[in-house]
Amino acid sequence: MTPFMFLLLAFFFVLSTAWHYRKLLLKEKKTSSEKQVPMG
Predict the structure, then answer these.
(1) Would you call 2 helix, strand, or coil by DSSP?
(2) What's the predicted TM-score (pTM) here?
(3) How many Å apart are CA 14 and CA 26, to the nearest integer?
(4) Counting C-beta atoms within 10 Å of the first and last residue's C-beta, which end of the chain has fewer, N or C?
(5) Residues 1-40: pLDDT tens digits?
(6) How far apart are alpha carbons 31 and 27 in whole angstroms?
(7) Nearest-angstrom CA–CA distance, 6 and 37
């Protein structure tokens, strides 16, 4: 396994993790905003 391949693999891993994390954050933002609407 070449170092370049390892870097590429790590890059894809970080990218996928960030994608899932962003989806979770968007979900939390949506639910929090929905909860705040009736109160306002």
Answers:
(1) coil
(2) 0.52
(3) 18
(4) C
(5) 699 999 999 999 999 999 999 988 888 777 666 666 565 5
(6) 6
(7) 47
